[in-house]
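U., I forgot to send this yesterday:
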Amino acid sequence: MHPLITRDPVSGNELVVTRLECPESGIVIEGQFSLGWIGRLTREQLDFVELMVKYRGNIQKLAAEMNVAYNTARSRLDEIVAALGGTPEETRVDRRAVLDRLASKEISVEEAMRLLKG
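Result:
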């Protein structure tokens, strides 16, 4: 079985499901079905969401799993939030995230102080 494709590879638009089938019972349902919020995300974004659930929202662990910087993982999360129609909290300082980055020695004490002061 192939992974779910959510976007038209030519236009980039959301795809619509037109057929559902249960191989076990042979039941086939045809029509036009939305993929909902899943249809607004790319395959890569869905993979990211899967990891977010796996790590219970801990971006630091997710970043380590993906072998990317914390800020890169945070940016990808912001892109997903925007794709779902939300507004990333770019202006609000996430105090816990700053302290986590400080604890992991990703940033210096001076940088943490600067970020916490805004």
